[in-house]
Every structure is written in structure tokens, then in C-alpha cells.
Specification:
Helix content is 72%, strand content 0%. By secondary structure, it is mostly helical. It has one domain.
Amino acid sequence: MKTTANSNNLKVNTGLLKVVAVLQFLLLGLFYYTQWQQISLPGILNYTVFFVFLFAWLLVLADLLQQRIYQKWFWYLGMFTLPFLAILLYAFQRNSLIHLKENSFSK
């Protein structure tokens, strides 16, 4: 499969999106649990949590820009106000949102 720099054919695998969303949510929960228990963690774990979150956020944002989904403005707003929850919800609702947009009455 050959891709070029000006290609708009970014394909996001739904399975990968779900795995990354769940992983970032679990790592974030671990991070907050250790902060609550006042356990010091190695710095690499803190960076891992941040970079997994950043990867998941960019993956969902790229998919949002590419797909035609139902009420896209709501998901953009959610990505900036509650990013951790929006990533997880979007990963599991993606297919139904695309289906709703294709079958909506407001064409």
C-alpha cells in the first residue's frame, strides 16, 4: 500500500482505537490512584501516561476530521472539555455515529 504526503486516505482501525482508548484510560486511572495514595512513581510511567493519552487524542482527532459522523461539533467540544472520557466514548460509539449520519433525515 503506497501513501503520499498529500493523501487524505488515513484509515483508523477501530480495534486499534478501542485498545488505545482503554489503555490510556487504565493508565490514567493508575496515575491518579498513585497520586491519591501518595506513591512516588518512576518518571517513565508519567511520560508513558502522557504519550499514550496524546497518541489516543490525536488518533481520535484525525478520525473525527476524516469521518462524516453525527453531531461532529459535540465530539469536538468533548475532545477539548473532557478529553479522557470523550476518547473512550468515541472509540466505542464510532460505528453507530457513522451509521446515524448516513441514515439521518437531515440530508
